[in-house]
Design a protein that fits this description.
12 helices, mainly alpha
């Protein structure tokens, strides 16, 4: 009677094959869905006309578009947020984006918890993943995740995947992925709404503030990552000498 159990080598081959198929699938999704989606949203007048024509269904479709953008992390989210502000207004656009962010964040979290680091490596290099290795410390993960999410310009798509590798609780992740995104979403939808209303002064002020906040966010993010990883390296070096 033959042994039906897979050998370790066979498991590795199947794992690699699954990863390759998944990567090809997401590349195809970006090429055939993501690019046309961004091109559509980047034509504000046409997008607004489509919203008026589709009514409530345009809201549901838009939420689906943002959810897809979060899952396929290579698709940029800013054009969708600007388009939401232009087509739906600042308030409704913000609400739609936050609802979609919450749904997308839950799906990504569940995928990573189910599949593990392999799905993260579909979108991000091992080097980028290791740059956030300090988040593995339980006492830091909640605070730093909130900090990175609340600052515009930080790599939220990367963090959405990496956080699933930590022991963060579901309830904490849901709270962070919904509330902490508000500042960056509001600035984007406000810009889009102001442009739609032809209030270019407000749009320029909001854009300038967003740029400054984004630069500050990127600087803070890099400083935090560098210092925390240096602390981790120092601790590991000390342990190795004991």
């Amino acid at each position: 009677m033959t042994d039906s159990r897979l050998t370790e080598r066979q498991k590795k081959v199947l794992s690699l094959l699954s990863l390759v198929i998944l990567a090809i699938f997401w590349v195809a999704v970006f090429y055939y869905v993501g690019r046309p989606m961004l091109a559509f949203v980047n034509r504000p007048d046409k997008f607004r006309a489509w919203v008026m024509e589709k009514g409530i269904f345009s809201r549901l479709i838009f939420i689906g578009m943002v959810v897809l953008q979060i899952i396929v992390a290579v698709i940029p989210g800013e054009p969708l947020e600007l388009g939401a502000g232009y087509a739906f207004g600042a308030v409704e656009g913000t609400i739609l984006c936050i609802v979609a962010d919450l749904i997308g964040g839950i799906i990504v979290f569940a995928l990573v918890r189910s599949i593990g680091v392999r799905i993260v490596e579909v979108f991000f290099s091992r080097e980028k993943i290791l740059s956030l290795r300090f988040l593995q410390k339980r006492e830091r993960v909640n605070l730093f995740t909130y900090l990175i999410f609340i600052l515009p310009g930080t790599p939220k798509d990367l963090l959405s995947y990496v956080v699933g590798l930590t022991d963060m609780r579901w309830s904490v992740w849901i709270l962070i992925t919904s509330i902490a995104r508000l500042p960056s979403v509001i600035t984007s939808t406000l810009i889009g709404s102001a442009i739609g209303l032809q209030n270019y002064t407000v749009a320029a002020i909001a854009f300038g503030a967003t740029v400054l906040l984004s630069i500050g966010g990127i600087i803070v993010y890099r400083i935090v990552c560098k210092r925390q990883n240096e602390d981790n390296d120092a601790v590991e070096y000390t342990k190795s000498d004991i």
